[in-house]
TrEMBL record:
Keywords: ATP-binding, Hydrolase, Nucleotide-binding. It comes from Chromohalobacter beijerinckii. Pfam families: CT_A_B. This is Biotin-dependent carboxyltransferase family protein. Residues 25-305 form the Carboxyltransferase domain. It comes from the Bacteria. The lineage of its organism: Bacteria, Pseudomonadati, Pseudomonadota, Gammaproteobacteria, Oceanospirillales. SMART domains: AHS2 (SM00797). InterPro entries: CT_A_B, Cyclophilin-like_dom_sf, PxpC.
Length: 307
């Protein structure tokens, strides 16, 4: 079957969908699109289900050659995308003709771009998902979780839905002239941090460290002091904000471990995790407390946008 051929492979272009659920008790992590909101909007532009498989392109370096015409959608980071050397702005649905090349260079804004295909990419699910998890060798085109490499062929079986354009205000990336705030639901150990630490956690700018990947993001800032007793390892949710002995928080993302024993301030909301996934190292972010019920309402409103 004809499709898009990988002519140049970037450092981390992965097949991702909504993630792998119901398997954490097996020690298998969630995976899935780090910026699940951008993947959802890319799929919406084509009339797909929001969790349909697409390509997550981190920091660029990818070139695709079209063997056949297709209607695609691009959202998320601005990685200097071009179609036959003509600029392609994120947040659009577009047509690629046979013989054309779609290229992604390097980040101009954000970190991860999402490319959606009619009906979603063809791949065989592993444990209920095609999400690529390199560390666990699960998912992707070959079921082994590997990154896209030169010569891979991306195919799809569906058709694009009616023409759509993104609603106004959708697709704004962190740092577009505004403070980057990340909503956090307090956790079981938050009361065991010193009062000064809790105040500083929510009233000080944190800087995203160079040590950031799909497993987690390290923050640097004031040293937080945990005063509670030692912990038994417990399950780790998406967005968990762990505080190890050095007092510098680590926010755990899609490819995180399934259990951990560090105390936690709480967890970022799924929407905040999506936002964090687009923040480049050196970006300043602010944590802001939110009630669990409020976070749930906001999350449900996002899901309702896609019908």
């Amino acid at each position: 079957m004809k499709g898009l051929i990988v002519e140049r492979a970037g450092p981390l272009a992965l097949i991702q969908d909504g993630g792998r659920f119901g398997v954490r008790h097996l020690g298998v992590t969630q995976g899935g699109a780090a910026d699940w909101v951008s993947l959802g909007w890319a799929n919406w532009l084509l009339g797909n289900a929001p969790q349909a498989p697409g390509v997550e392109i981190t920091v660029g370096g990818l070139t695709l050659y079209a063997e056949a015409p297709a209607t695609l959608a691009l959202t998320g980071a601005d990685l200097g995308a071009t179609l036959d050397d003509e600029p392609l702005v994120p947040g659009c649905r577009f047509t690629i003709a046979a013989g054309q090349r779609l290229a992604f260079e390097s980040p101009r804004a954000g970190l991860r771009a999402y490319l959606a295909f009619p009906g979603g990419l063809d791949a065989t699910p592993v444990l209920g998902s095609v999400a690529s998890t390199v560390r666990e060798s699960l998912g992707g085109l070959d079921g082994q979780g590997r990154v896209l490499t030169e010569g891979d062929c991306l195919t799809w079986s569906g058709g694009a839905g009616p023409e759509r354009t993104l609603p106004s205000g959708v697709g704004t990336l962190p740092g577009d002239g505004e403070r980057v705030t990340l909503a956090l639901v307090g956790g079981a150990q938050i009361a065991d941090f010193s009062g000064t630490s809790v105040f500083e956690a929510f009233n000080t700018a944190w800087t995203i460290d160079q040590r950031t990947d799909r497993m987690g993001v390290r923050l640097t800032g004031p040293e937080l002091h945990y005063q509670g007793e030692g912990m038994v390892s417990e399950g780790i949710p998406l967005g968990a904000v762990q505080v190890p002995a050095d007092g510098q928080p680590i926010i755990l993302l899609n490819d995180r471990q399934t259990i951990g024993g560090y105390p936690r301030l709480g967890a970022l909301t799924p929407l905040a995790c999506s936002r964090l996934a687009q923040c480049q190292p050196g970006t300043e972010v602010w944590l802001t407390p939110v009630a669990a019920g409020q976070a749930r309402d906001v999350h449900l409103r996002q899901l309702a946008c896609w019908g």
